[in-house]
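Category: protein sequence paired with discrete backbone structure
Discipline: computational structural biology
Format: plain text, a pair of labelled lines
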Amino acid sequence: MKKRIIVDLLMLILFLVMMDYRLIRNFWHETLGTLLFFVVIYHNDLNRAWYTSLFHGRWTMERTISLLVNAVLIFSILSAIGSGVFISKNLPHFIGKAPRWIHYLHHIGGYLMLISLGFHIGLHWKSLLFRLERTLGFSKSKVLPWVERLLVPGILACGIYFSNYYSIGSRLFMLPIPNARSLPVTLWTFTFGYLMIISTYGVIAYYGMEILKKMQRRK
């Protein structure tokens, strides 16, 4: 249980810090990206039962949506890491200078990962929260659910603000961003801002799924 929580938190921290290319520069971006690759492999090994379960059981709406989100997340990870090998400044180049589309794929894959990771966390929030509560010894606390509900409006407000501040939509679709390099930012504000963006998509996924479940039960 603790091992899974540590792995999940490590992946999240690595991703958040790695995204801040302007401040950590290329060497640490590639180093953290390589480390993230191996942690992701270990995470998949811990959850390998999910892959075998795809061929068994009934396909509900919840299960189908979860599969689609996971598929997009896996695609974004493979796109970002796979293209990163070809544009690396530290690894030997196998194809000479990488074509521009590979740079685009790396860029889009990273921001697609940001969004799909949020949805992935949201869809698995109940199990993640259960593990965290068990790990911290809060499994019988009645306060945490209320704290969670109180935090939601603040998370959404911060997520919307930072999504606009960092022009996430424009970055995802490779649109021009005026004065992008002049944005005042530190590693901590950047990490917090991106955490709020991920959390916002997590909130949307979690409560969106809860609404869909209620609608299904009423039919």
Q: What stands out?
A: The chain has one domain: 58-218. The CA atoms of residues 154 and 161 lie 11 Å apart. The mean pLDDT is 89.
